[in-house]
Structure formats: C-alpha cells, structure tokens
Amino acid sequence: MTGKIDITKITLKARRIPDGFKNTKILHISDLHNACFGNGQKVIIETIRGLAPDYIFITGDLIDRKYRKMRNAIDLIKGIKAIAPIYYVTGNHEWESKETGRVFLEKLHEVGVNILHDQVINLERNGQSIQLMGIDDPYCLNQKKDAVYDRVSSKFFLIRFRKLLKEKKKGCVFLLSHRPEFIHFYAKAGIDVVFSGHAHGGQIRIPGIGGILAPHQGFFPKYAEGIVKENNTLMIISRGLGNSTFPIRINNHPELILATLE
C-alpha cells in the first residue's frame, strides 16, 4: 500500500468561467502508475467519494510501462465511475505499455470513461458551457521513421495542438494535457485553465528549493506542482499518486487536487 494522500483544495478563479459553474468541484487525478491504496483501492475510493466532486479529470499515466499490469488502475476507475463523470487523457506510460496500454484504454472505454484523443467537447451546467479539450501525450506516435524524435519534440506536439485549436470556439476553455512543460503553447493559445501532471512534484522535494528532478524537464523543474500562471492561463499541476523510474518520494506525499470554480 502507498502512503498518506495529500488533499490539495484550491479555489480556481479564471476570467471566463461562466456563472453557471460557480461552486462546481473538479477532482484532478494524475500519475497513479498502478499504485495501490488499500485492498481494491478502498482507501482512495472512499477519499474521493467523501470529496463529492462534480467532475473527475485524469491526466494520464494510470498504468506503468514496467509492470504490464492494470488491476489497480481498473479497480480505481470502477470504484469512482459512479461518483462523477470521468474525463481522461493519456500519458506516456499508456503508450509505452504497448499492447497492455491498448487493452487498458479499451477497458476504460467499456466502463464509460470519456477518453479525449485530441478532441474538444462541451461541459454543460445550468444552461452554460465550458469547452473541454484533451490532447494525447506525444508518445501516442508508433515506432515509424523519426517517431523517437517526434514524440519528444515540441515541434510535433505543436502541430497536433494547432490542429486541435481549430475546433476551439469563443468562451471559456479548459485543457487536459499530461505535459506541463508546454505551458508556453497553452498560454499563447489563450487556454483559460490547464490540468496537467507528469512531473511527480519533482519526486524529491527540498524545502525552500522545490522538486529535484522531473521527466522531460530535468533537474530543478520549473513546472512540478501547484498553480502556475502565464499570461491569462492558469495551469494546475498534480504531484501525482505513484512512482515510476525513481521508486520513492521524499517530502512529497501522493496528491489529489480538488478545485472549486469561482
């Protein structure tokens, strides 16, 4: 069993959030990496039920490429699917897990998870709407020529992101994206709020300094946790729930984020 879960509660104020969404609660989950929180995920499921969210946003890496197992991730999804609608985007580990990842995404679809593969949908509440965009992790590319370069390339991500933006309309826009390091793209596009993960809070956190190391950001990552603002874009970065390449966390408990809209 993984240790104590921090519940980070924030009030989210963004200039274009419609009045109809006032006091709406969004639970943000990221980077489970197949971690276990009690038998059948009972501990985390009961925690989430007690928070009573209106929506659940998941920003990837529920499974882990090293283990090729998905039971803990599936147990979590099955346990929370009746609590609130779930909106999900992939992380790199869903794609690096290859056949296991493909089967996992099929199972999520079967139980009613809304998987956003480079898509835009509308969330409707009290007669008003927020556009919710979701973009796949760059590792969605298969192993064709130049794929190794392209899937870690900001250039390729930007091509896909620009294509997705063509579906965006006027009004408030939320984005689910696994990668926080692309915030300059999100800000330039005028996204109101981004939900992201991937950085694991920097894995080891030193008081007064912050996180030490994050994937695709390297040492002393700038975008590792908390709320970051660039221009009029707010980005909420989850420290995540599990571990991957580095097996432990220091000064960095697993985290769930509950954002209440204003």
Describe this structure in words.
This protein is an alpha/beta fold. It contains seven helices and 16 strands. The chain has a six-stranded mixed beta sheet, covered by helices on one side. It has a six-stranded mixed beta sheet with strand order 6-7-8-9-15-14. A two-stranded antiparallel ribbon has the order 10-11. It has helices spanning 42-51, 71-80, 92-96, 99-110, 147-150, 154-165, 183-188, and strands spanning 6-12, 25-29, 55-58, 86-88, 114-115, 119-125, 128-134, 173-176, 193-196, 205-206, 210-211, 213-214, 218-219, 226-230, 233-237, 255-261.
β-strand amount = 25-35%
User: How many β-strand runs?
Assistant: 16
* Poorly predicted parts: none
Mean pLDDT: 88
The number of helical elements comes to 7
Describe the sheet with the most strands: 6 strands, mixed
Distance between the termini: 35 Å
> Any idea what the radius of gyration is?
17 Å
Overall body shape: globular
